[in-house]
Inverse folding.
């Protein structure tokens, strides 16, 4: 108890609190600039932060990461350009909402969901880190393979459009996802001789091209007159400007489910917030009573990815606190800041010297609070910025798209990719192919492939592969859960078909 | 105070000497980092740019040109004018290792001038602390008795530490299963959960402090200060041992006076207190080698790697 109080007071000094605040402000603003991810900014600033006290540096880092996850969703909603890849799934329903004049409502939903997801995973981290981390260790390559394969499978069925179109888009995404070095033999694959493609197609050029550039191209088809109007108009109806209590209650189950999903994903090292956001979106759509509303401005379509991606950031500290394994780059940066102080996160530090850990927990919760307060300011500011005429906004979006792709690794090739994917995205929209399965296929394929192939190698290294895999409790549990969910999905498809047939008979 | 004065005086005499000898540098120097921002290579490069800018009195631009595992950035450096105004950061893998197993767009022995090495990192062979292995002999014996059943991984597939360890197994005729890496953090989790039995990674510090793992051997020259009792691979009589270096390079044909200027600059930077703090913070070992010594080290490592690749068929 004493050490808890000591830890809390460490985080509640003026410099520490101000550092969280500064981190949130910087994170929200930088997150809103596509291509400038918080990780990158922090990395660039690290050489200049040697002289910062760790109790200023770590809270600032935490604030920055949390702020950027929300900041990036504002641009995703209002101009269809996710500030960071994690907000790509937010585009799917956030942007349609903005077009209906409900941009402010979508942003506020994103804000509440972000803070909810953050707080949820922080609380899980504080009370259950060692327990959850022990469970997460049961997830090896075989279990990752099952999880990802299952996500792809269900998604093919719930993509909304014609099933064959959904599957085609997903397979195209998966094909794009295997470009690069073969994960086992390290020989180049589908790179067409471009060295730039050896590390695979960049997520940022792909997402920005597919979402932002394709949208600008689509809008350019409209008659000239329309281009003088602004792309988003904000309705002044109070119902379109805020999230009512009734609406919040309606999305609450989605928030809970997505936050749990995000926390679980975060506890597994190596799976990103982007993946969690898409998985949560997919699951919200699958379990919704009216999945056909998704993609057309459904409030839950914003709540699910936003709570899930933020939940990942807190949960990434779970393996760090339990074993000293950083789950992502944010956790790695916090780890290095701790190591500098001679503090090694893990079971030993909880026993011997827990103050710094409690200080971090306090900073996490404090950051959530500031994120909520300052988020409203960012929404107000963004509202003013994006209500410029399209003929001014679109060229700016194109320039930002090119600049952000270039900024990642100083590659003109990536800029060309942005416009190629913009064109591809435009063509696919014209042909009425759904984009979500393509993006999910692209993001999940590398995880699926490397884990599947590693699992096959493991199978070859044990005397009895069957006994090995079915001797793993997590593997058996996953198979059982998935069989159950598959039955539910199939039943639903059959029911829909019957309903459609009945309706067809009546009208015919 | 006195220390700072001495340092300032040193810097003054040095720059004055340079100004007389030649007019290098006369314009902004571009430092190409062939990796994305945020890694240790990027962090140390930015630090060096910052310090060298004070010493040489010109601006530095740090450019991240990532891709192809370092090939792209280094290739653009190799093709630049050898006037000392374009230099690049290099690490082991794209210089002495990968060109033997994957076709590189440049020839590391022909197309680059090696400026100076400033850091080494340790790449130990680690196992679970509560596991069955207490020495490399245990590991080899197990692998020989159970062909293909020992599973292991390294942070960088086909990097130096991976291939040095692979050469050890092949020298013993031990059949093992190498699982391609998904990054140091994931491999550490895999090691703790028993998915793999052995790992060669550099981010082992926290797990070692928590008593979760132990170090059996070191794959680079010199014992690991964290485990002074663990032998190096060459002490054990194995064929390949590769230094894991951070260094600077420039296009081939760099004039001698530019090389001399950088030797002085890097000597000065690596002696500074700020540099030592940085090394401590990223768990690196500050290790300065001037251009001549470092060029010899690269040539020796490149040759050793080439021989090992041929002898043990590491390219397959």
């Amino acid at each position: 108890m004493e050490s808890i109080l000591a830890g809390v007071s460490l985080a509640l000094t003026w410099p520490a609190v101000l550092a969280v605040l500064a981190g949130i402000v910087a994170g929200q603003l930088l997150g809103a600039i596509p291509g400038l991810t918080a990780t990158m900014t922090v990395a660039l600033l690290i050489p200049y932060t040697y002289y910062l006290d760790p109790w200023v540096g770590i809270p600032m880092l935490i604030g920055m990461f949390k702020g950027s996850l929300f900041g990036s969703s504002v641009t995703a909603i209002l101009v269809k350009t996710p500030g960071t890849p994690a907000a790509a799934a937010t585009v799917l329903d956030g942007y349609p909402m903005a077009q209906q004049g409900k941009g402010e409502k979508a942003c506020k939903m994103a804000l509440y969901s972000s803070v909810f997801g953050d707080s949820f995973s922080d609380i899980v981290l504080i009370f259950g880190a060692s327990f959850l981390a022990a469970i997460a260790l049961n997830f090896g390559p075989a279990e990752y393979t099952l999880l990802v394969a299952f996500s792809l499978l269900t998604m093919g069925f719930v993509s909304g459009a014609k099933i064959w179109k959904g599957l085609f888009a997903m397979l195209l995404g998966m094909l794009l996802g295997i470009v690069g070095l073969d994960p086992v033999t390290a020989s180049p694959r589908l790179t067409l001789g471009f060295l730039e493609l050896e590390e695979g197609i960049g997520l940022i050029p792909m997402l920005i091209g597919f979402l932002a550039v394709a949208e600008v191209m689509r809008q350019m088809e409209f008659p000239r007159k329309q281009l003088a109007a602004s792309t988003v108009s904000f309705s002044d109806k109070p119902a379109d400007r805020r999230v009512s209590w009734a609406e919040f209650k309606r999305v609450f189950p989605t928030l809970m489910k997505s936050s749990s999903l995000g926390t679980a994903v975060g506890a597994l090292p190596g799976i990103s917030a982007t993946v969690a956001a898409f998985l949560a979106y997919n699951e919200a759509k699958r379990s919704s009573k009216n999945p056909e509303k998704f993609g057309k401005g459904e409030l839950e379509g914003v709540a699910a990815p936003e709570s899930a991606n933020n939940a990942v950031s807190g949960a990434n500290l779970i393996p760090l606190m339990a074993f000293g394994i950083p789950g992502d780059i944010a956790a790695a940066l916090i780890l290095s800041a701790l190591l500098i102080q001679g503090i090694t996160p893990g079971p030993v530090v909880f026993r011997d010297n827990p103050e710094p850990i409690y200080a971090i927990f306090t900073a996490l919760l404090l950051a959530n609070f500031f994120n909520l307060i300052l988020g409203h300011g960012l929404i107000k500011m963004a509202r003013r910025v994006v209500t410029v005429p399209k003929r001014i906004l679109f060229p700016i979006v194109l320039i930002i798209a090119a600049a952000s792709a270039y900024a990642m690794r100083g590659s003109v090739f990536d800029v060309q990719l942005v416009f190629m994917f913009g064109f591809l995205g435009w063509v696919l929209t014209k042909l009425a192919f759904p984009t979500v399965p393509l993006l999910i296929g692209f993001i999940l394929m590398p995880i699926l492939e490397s884990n599947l192939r590693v699992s096959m190698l493991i199978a070859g290294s044990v005397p009895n592969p069957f006994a090995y895999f079915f001797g793993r409790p997590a593997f058996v549990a996953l198979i059982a859960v998935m069989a159950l969910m598959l039955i539910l999905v199939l039943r639903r498809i059959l029911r829909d078909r019957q309903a459609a047939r009945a309706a067809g008979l009546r009208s015919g | 105070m006195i220390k700072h004065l001495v340092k300032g005086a040193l810097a003054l005499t040095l720059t004055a000497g340079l100004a007389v000898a030649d007019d290098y540098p006369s314009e902004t120097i571009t430092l190409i980092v062939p990796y994305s921002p945020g890694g240790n290579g990027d962090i140390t490069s930015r630090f060096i740019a910052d310090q060298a800018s004070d010493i040489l009195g010109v601006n530095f631009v740090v450019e991240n040109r990532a891709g192809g595992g370092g090939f792209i950035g280094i290739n653009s450096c190799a093709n630049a004018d050898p006037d000392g105004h374009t230099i690049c950061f290099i690490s082991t893998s794209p210089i002495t290792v990968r060109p033997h197993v994957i076709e590189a767009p440049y020839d590391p022995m022909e197309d680059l001038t090696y400026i100076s090495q400033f850091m080494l990192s340790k790449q130990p062979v680690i196992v679970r602390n509560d596991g069955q292995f207490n020495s490399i002999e245990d590991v080899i014996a197990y692998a020989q008795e159970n062909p293909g059943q020992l599973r292991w991984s390294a942070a960088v597939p086909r990097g130096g530490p991976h291939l040095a360890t692979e050469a050890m197994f092949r020298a013993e005729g031990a059949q093992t299963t190498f699982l391609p890496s998904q990054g140091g953090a994931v491999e550490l989790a895999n090691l703790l959960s028993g998915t793999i039995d052995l790992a060669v990674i550099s981010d082992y510090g926290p797990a070692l402090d928590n008593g979760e793992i132990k170090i059996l051997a070191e794959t680079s020259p010199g014992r690991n200060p964290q485990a002074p009792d663990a032998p190096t691979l060459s002490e054990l009589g194995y064929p390949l041992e590769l230094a894991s270096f951070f260094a600077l390079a420039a296009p081939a044909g760099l004039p001698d006076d530019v090389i001399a200027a950088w030797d002085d600059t890097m000597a000065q930077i690596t002696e500074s207190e700020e540099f030592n703090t940085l090394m401590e913070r990223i768990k690196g070992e500050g290790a300065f080698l001037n251009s001549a010594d470092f060029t010899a080290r690269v040539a020796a490592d490149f040759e050793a790697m080439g021989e090992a690749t041929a002898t043990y068929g590491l390219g397959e």
Q: What stands out?
A: Residues 2-461 of chain A form one domain.
